[in-house]
Each structure stands twice: as C-alpha cells, then as structure tokens.
Write a structure and sequence with these properties.
Bound molecules: FE2/S2 (inorganic) cluster
Strand order of the largest sheet: 1-2
Structural class: mainly alpha
CATH class: Mainly Alpha
Low-confidence stretches: none
Radius of gyration: 10 Å
Number of helices: 3
Distance between the termini: 16 Å
Shape: globular
Number of strands: 2
Strand content: 5-15%
Length: 61
Amino acid sequence: MDEERMVCECYGIRVKDIKQAMLDGNDTFEKMERCMRLGVLCGACVSDAKKVIAALNENIQ
Ligand code: FES
C-alpha cells in the first residue's frame, strides 16, 4: 500500500497518518473521526478510509 497516498483531502490525511493513528491506539474509523477528524467535513473519503483501515488492520495483526 502506498503510504503517501492522500485519503482525506479535506484534512490532508494520508495512509501513513491513518497507520500512525492505529499504532497510537485509534484502531477504528470512529476513533479516527474523533482524534483526527477523518471524514467529518465532506464525507467523500469515508468509504475509502474504512477500506484503508481494514487493510491496515489485517497487516498489523
Ligand atoms: S475528504 Fe475527508 S472529509 Fe472531505
């Protein structure tokens, strides 16, 4: 997975930022909504963000 790929344009959140949030204990989309505002502005990234989180969860565990 390309860690530099932009997932959330509104907040400039890349794959690597989601990965770091997971390593910091924010392992669900809902937690990332709260800690980094992922997906809360336009919502266009929500589906992609959830796929990225699922894929990273498989890789990390
Ligand atoms: S692209 Fe993520 S909230 Fe708009």
